[in-house]
Amino acid sequence: MYKFYYMPGACSLAIHALLNELRQEVEIVDRSKAQDFERLESRGMVPVLVDNGQVIREGAAIILYLLEKHKNQMLPEGGLEKTRFIEWLMFANATLHPAYGRLFFIGRNLPDGPVKEQALTAASGIISSLWESVEKQLQQSTFVCGSRLTVVDMMLAVYASWGEYFPVDIVIGERTREIIAAVRAHPAFVKAVSDEQQASA
């Protein structure tokens, strides 16, 4: 059984949903309630996956590890198709995620006032432009990586909810909002949300 450390509302939710989709048994642990977390991850970052004593950090690395290990229809076998999947995985993990991270940094570190408002507006504009890239991709495919829902779509659904924490307008296109709704209704995602709410209560 896997042991998975998460934080409510964080990007770890997408990997928790992926574990459900792969039908893997998992013990979930709220980072804030874990006495041993700093020993596993000195930076305090989630997600962290423990598999048979081996600690795996960083969301994209955990995702690729799970998809390589367990039979699934998300990860193409090779070639350009696999490269495109990894490209979108990294877009979500290394481009869109940090763009939202700037909002959180500004929200926590700048005093309220015109400077903060200007910084939040600039950061939200960058995020909106990134969502435009997703919307453009969805003009030619049902989901981001093709005809099937993948963990990339799950990641995007998590990130989309983060805009609610800030007094900014982030523009998300119609097709993108449709796949976000599909993810949020997907059984593996619904179960992950429910299980984390119960575990963190």
Supply database-style keywords.
201 residues, alpha+beta, Glutaredoxin, Glutathione S-transferase Yfyf (Class Pi), Chain A, domain 2, 2 domains, 4-stranded mixed β-sheet, 58% helix, 9% strand, globular
Main sheet, how many strands, which sense, barrel?
4 strands, mixed
Write down the secondary-structure element order.
EHEHEEHHHHHH
What's the end-to-end separation, in Å? Answer: 23 Å
- Cα-based radius of gyration, to the nearest Å: 17 Å
Structural classification: alpha+beta
Number of discrete domains: 2
Q: Please give the share of residues in helix.
A: 55-70%
The first-level CATH class of the largest domain is given as Mainly Alpha
User: Quick one: how many beta strands?
Assistant: 4
Number of helices: 8
Overall 3D geometry?
globular
List low-confidence stretches: none
Beta-strand proportion: 5-15%
Query: Order of strands across the biggest sheet?
Result: 2-1-3-4
CATH-level-2 architecture of the largest domain: Up-down Bundle
CATH topology descriptor of the largest domain:
Glutathione S-transferase Yfyf (Class Pi), Chain A, domain 2
- Estimate the mean pLDDT confidence: 96
